[in-house]
């Protein structure tokens, strides 16, 4: 699939869904992120017919789409996995967590012990946690938890880059917007990085 066939066109002004959450735990630390206008959430018209209420990640466009009826979608800007760590495929949301704890995988510790060994016993959820304010856990039938996540970050400078250990990340205020709309078992497609423009 060519990227031009997948990408959407803007359907109007930026889309910022209303969010309602209680200021419990660390939610009071979440503030709107100052991002360039082209990176703000918005409603778009899809050029490819996709079933509604699925998540599609276009790594070449650093975009996450939550599809809607009538071939529309809600689009968020994301950071994605570094080369060699991004895993394309079809998954489903097997768990959802607010302010999730985090432990680097054994593979991450082996790859970069200087960065990750100190967290081998895990890190509690909170504003400094790499998974941010919310996380959607991606599962595969027969495999279970893939250790891939769609999660938050308090580092907006990483959006639009290949920076993670395989996950897709949104800034914290935007992952909250997405998280509230996504039920368990939602289909998630991480499209190949070979999509060309």
Mean pLDDT, as a whole number?
Answer: 86
Low-confidence stretches are 10-23
CATH top-level class = Mainly Beta
**Using DSSP, what is the number of strands?**
12
Task: Explain the overall architecture.
It is a single chain. The relative contact order is 0.25. The chain has four helices and twelve strands, in the order αβββββββααββββαβ. It has a single domain, classed as L,D-transpeptidase catalytic domain-like (Beta Barrel). Mean pLDDT is 86; it is low at 10-23. It has a ten-stranded mixed beta sheet with strand order 1-2-5-4-3-12-7-8-9-11. Strands 6-10 form a two-stranded parallel ribbon. It has 197 residues and is mainly beta. The radius of gyration is 16 Å and the shape is globular. The protein starts with a helix and ends in a 7-residue tail after the last strand. It has helices spanning 3-6, 106-111, 113-116, 172-181, and strands spanning 8-14, 42-46, 55-58, 63-68, 72-77, 80-81, 89-98, 134-140, 144-153, 162-164, 168-171, 187-190. The chain is 12% helix and 35% strand.
């Amino acid at each position: 699939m060519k990227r031009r066939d997948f990408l959407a066109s803007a359907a109007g002004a930026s889309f910022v869904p209303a969010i309602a959450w209680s200021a419990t735990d660390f939610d009071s630390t979440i503030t709107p992120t100052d991002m360039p206008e082209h990176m703000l959430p918005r409603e778009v018209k899809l050029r490819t017919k996709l079933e509604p209420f699925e998540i599609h990640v276009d790594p070449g466009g650093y975009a996450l789409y939550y599809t809607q009826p009538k071939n529309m979608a809600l689009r968020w800007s994301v950071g994605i996995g570094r080369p060699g760590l991004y895993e394309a495929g079809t998954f489903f949301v097997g768990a959802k967590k607010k302010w999730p704890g985090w432990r680097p995988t054994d593979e991450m510790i082996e790859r970069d012990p200087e960065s990750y060994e100190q967290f081998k016993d895990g890190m509690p959820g909170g504003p400094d946690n790499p998974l941010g304010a919310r996380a959607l856990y991606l599962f595969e039938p027969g495999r279970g938890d893939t250790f891939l996540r769609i999660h938050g970050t308090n580092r907006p400078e990483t959006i639009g880059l290949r920076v993670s250990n395989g996950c897709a990340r949104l800034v914290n205020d935007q992952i909250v917007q997405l998280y509230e709309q996504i039920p368990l078992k939602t289909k998630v497609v991480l499209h190949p990085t070979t999509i060309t423009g």
